[in-house]
Fold this sequence. Notes:
Elements: H1 30-40, E1 45-46, H2 47-54, H3 58-71, E2 77-82, E3 85-90, H4 95-102, H5 112-124, E4 127-128, H6 129-136, H7 141-149, E5 153-158, E6 166-170, H8 172-177
Helix pairs in contact: 1-3, 2-3, 5-7
Amino acid sequence: MVSNAIPESPEAEGAGDYSTAVPTVPELSLAAKVEGLLFVSSGAVQVANLANVLHVPAREIEAALHSLAESYRGRGIRLQRHDSRAQLTSAPELASHVERLLGLEATTHLTQAALEVLAIIAYQQPVTRPHIDSIRGVNSESVLGTLLRHGLIEEAGRSDGPGRPILYRTTPEFLRHFGLNSLSELPPLGLPPIAPAAPGANSPESGESPQEGSETG
């Protein structure tokens, strides 16, 4: 009886031995992991959330964020910080190119009144509307509504003062609008401190605001 078996040659020895070993992949650095998480996030991410996901202390996340920010210098990506949040954005120098690429309308131009209110909030946040009104001397309710609609400011709780007025602060969109990576990049004002109100005067934190001269945003 003739065997149909094909004799194995020395060269074929081990040819059917398929290895199941998985190639070793180098462990990503913490900065690389943080970068990846920020890349897939639709908005700013809390440092505490990153620390929880990666199971590391918040201080290590901060160090990783600092490393990323340094590595992005001179590149088309920036690390934007706002309070305890972080996100990746395009470099502000690319704004016009990004608008053309994505077919976006030109950046909304803000009125002088809106810029005044925004400046007060940016430098004194969190701040209430009565306090803003006391500085400007006019009712700023309409202007605040405009800034809220554009996402440049947001509510940040309520003051402990009389009437518990709403506190306002800037948003990450504010930073993008003005090409800032963080609030620390705001230019210094160099103004003298505001003197405390005299006894019996309307407090900035009270629920009353100037009524005359109300304007729109």
